[in-house]
Specification:
mainly beta, disordered N terminus, elongated, two-stranded antiparallel sheet
Length: 248
């Protein structure tokens, strides 16, 4: 996936968000109305589009990494959200004995369930979620050092520049996070991830050191972990009128 093209898609989505939000404001009535001992209010339903700030931050300070992730979720019911993430990563594994570059894209699909009971008119989230992740990527082994215990001869470094393409991987991911409304329809969020690899392409005489979306892998475990924080914008599509009793 071309990062410039992905940025273009995201900026276009933000412009669309503002346009739809302005239209919604022009065609909306008061969000709250108190009648007798009850308050009637409009609960927003729509599409939330976000950008992972942690990957942008890492791309700026880590010369061995470039990445971008766009997220989206749709409020299906009062507490259930259909969610997805789409991303691209290029990561260089630069260690003493090996230099390898991984490049590819990934998609994650699943749901989030909000466990937080909001106050009237608020749409903050404390959620748990599940994802199925799939990545398509390539590995490029640039050089490696042959291990030796002989101090007399210098280390033998082989520059090979060998590529392994058409690789795939899939995993199951659990998420827990929160999302807070900061102003208007803008939100800040943070989450943690726990992952379990389901399948991964095998490479002859080489390991998958990194999988886009799953990130760092280890020989003796299929478990991975991650985290992120994001900024997002809610595109209101429709609303439902809810009623809440007022204590006298």
């Amino acid at each position: 996936m071309n990062l410039k093209l992905t940025y273009t898609y995201f900026i276009s989505s933000i412009l669309l968000c503002f346009g739809m939000h302005s239209f919604a404001q022009e065609n909306s009535t008061d969000e709250y109305e108190q009648v007798s001992d009850s308050i009637f209010f409009k609960d927003k339903y729509g599409l939330n589009i976000g950008l992972d700030l942690s990957r942008i931050g890492q791309s700026s300070w880590d010369s061995d990494y470039q990445g971008l992730e766009i997220s989206a979720d749709y409020r299906y019911s009062e507490d259930l959200y259909i969610a997805a993430e789409l991303g691209n990563e290029t990561s260089t594994f630069n260690e003493q004995n090996i230099i390898n570059e991984t490049d590819g894209s990934y998609i994650k699909l699943g749901v989030n369930y909000n466990v937080y009971d909001n106050w009237i008119g608020m749409q903050n989230l404390i959620y748990v979620g599940v994802r199925y992740g799939f990545a398509s990527y390539s590995q490029n082994l640039q050089s490696y050092r042959i291990y030796t215990t002989d101090d007399y001869f210098p280390s033998d470094i082989r520059d090979v520049d060998v590529s392994f393409s058409n690789l795939t991987a899939s995993w199951i991911e659990l998420q827990a996070g929160l999302r807070v409304n900061i102003f208007d329809n803008f939100y800040l969020g943070a989450h943690v991830q726990l992952k379990n690899m389901v399948s991964v392409s095998e490479i002859n005489n080489f390991d998958n050191l990194y999988v886009p979306g799953f990130r760092r892998t280890f020989d003796n475990s299929s478990i991975g972990a991650g985290w992120g924080y994001s900024i997002s914008y809610l595109i209101p599509i429709y609303s439902k009128t809810k009623t809440q009793a007022v204590d006298n």
